[in-house]
Amino acid sequence: MMNYLIILAGAMMIIAAVFAVEAKKILDAVIAMSVVSLVSVFLFIAMRAPDVAITEASVGAGLVTAVFLVSLFKMKGGDEQ
Amino acid sequence: MRRFYAILIAAALVYMLISFISTVPSYGKADLKERVSDAFLSKSVNAQNAKAWLEGKAIHRQPAKEIYGKKVKEEGSANVVTSIVVNYRSFDTLGEVTVLFTAALGVSLILGGSRRKQYGREANFVLKTSTGILVPLIIMFGAYIFVHGHLTPGGGFPGGTIIAMASLLLYLSDEKFFLSKASTGALEGSMGGTYVIIGLLGLAIGGYFLYNFLPNGVVGNLVSAGIVPLVYVAIGLKVGAELSGLVTDLHSEKEG
Q1: CA gap B16, B252 in Å, rounded
Q2: CB B239 within 8 A of CB B145
Q3: Is B208 left (phi over 0), alpha (psi -120 to 50) or beta?
Q4: What CA dihedral angle connects B102, B106, B109 and B115, to 10 degrees?
Q5: Beta-carbon-side half-sphere exposure of residue B167 (alpha carbons within 13 Å)
Q6: Based on CB atoms within 10 Å of each CB, which residue in A18, B57, B79, B100 is the most buried?
Q7: pLDDT at position B43, please?
């Protein structure tokens, strides 16, 4: 059961990472990167590393995504869709 | 078709969240003998059959040490990661804090300004109302994470980041909200200075920089582990102020 879940999580991470590279719009790439971070949080929990999981959830999935989004909208001159 | 994929991905994420969280043992019920790190912590890795251990086969182990409520001579923190990060390798953490400070300084030099950037759009009613409810809770959760850094997983860096997320939420919901550079800078500088002063006190009292000069206390109490809670409170406030300043820099523009 656990192995199956970890394989599922790893497959989702790979799919999201490939999507982040291949996406046409930068916004989609940023969202896919945050999905990679989010799924890696689950993997860290499964590997009993809660310290790393908390840091990854707050920094990787939260702040980095926010900084990327804000700087993306700054690049476009403040107009977002 | 797109909606179908979206529902599929969301369902997979929720399923994984529930199933992974349910594998975590409930509070205080963790079986320390099952942990790989137990062999390292009891410092008896060589005494065991390393090959069978790596293959995951059942091996004879020492019973796990019961540490809660006991006085441990060497380091008094219940969370092992904290005792490494803030006790044995505290100088590395000071360097890490310096790296984060340098990064925030670079962002501030490039993007910083003295005025709030106006986007000219009003925030959603739902966002405004929920911000008022959520911001105190988020700040309290961040403070809990860094105050209890020596007892539970977490510590100064994630706690500070969570506090910075609260200020980001305030920036998103209110067009006029602006943290002055003076307030975040003063908090950040004083807390960074506190960390160095604690280290210098250790140098004066114990003979080593960042020496743990306070008594260790009982493992599991809030006031235990010597200087570790003080250092983590300093780091948490410093990182929180620093990243709030970074969010401020992202939402500000130069005069004229």
Answers
A1: 38
A2: no
A3: beta
A4: -90
A5: 23
A6: B79
A7: 45
Residue B54: count other Cβ atoms within 10 Å of its Cβ.
9
Contacts of A34 in chain B (CB under 8 A): none
Query: Can you tell me the distance from the alpha carbon of B235 to that of B227, in angstroms, rounded to the nearest whole number?
Result: 12
Instruction: Give the long-range contacts of residues B129-136, CB within 8 A, separation 24 or more.
Output: B131/B169, B131/B170, B131/B172, B131/B173, B131/B174, B134/B166, B134/B169, B135/B166, B135/B169, B135/B170
Domain boundaries of chain B, sorted by first residue: 29-65, 80-253
Question: Distance (Å, rounded) from C-alpha B125 to C-alpha B253?
Answer: 26
**Which residue in B232, B226, B158 sits closest to B195, CA to CA?**
B232
Looking at the DSSP bridge assignments, the partners of residue B252 are B116
Burial of B155 (0-12, 13-18, 19+ CB in 10 A): buried
Q: What is the pTM of this model?
A: 0.79
Strands (DSSP E) contained in chain B are: 115-116, 252-253
To the nearest whole angstrom, how far is the Cα of B51 from the nearest Cα of chain A? 20
Predicted complex ipTM exceeds 0.85: no
A57 within 8 A of B159, measured Cβ to Cβ: no
Residue pair B220/B78 in contact (Cβ under 8 Å)? The answer is yes
B199-240 confidence digits (pLDDT tens): 888 888 888 888 888 877 777 777 777 888 888 899 999 999
Chain A residues with a Cβ under 8 Å from any Cβ in chain B: 2, 5, 8-9, 12, 35, 38-39, 42, 45-46, 48, 50-51, 53-55, 57-59, 62-63, 66-67, 70-71, 74, 78
- Hey, CA dihedral for B73, B78, B84, B90, is it positive or negative? negative
| Strand partners of residue B253 | B115
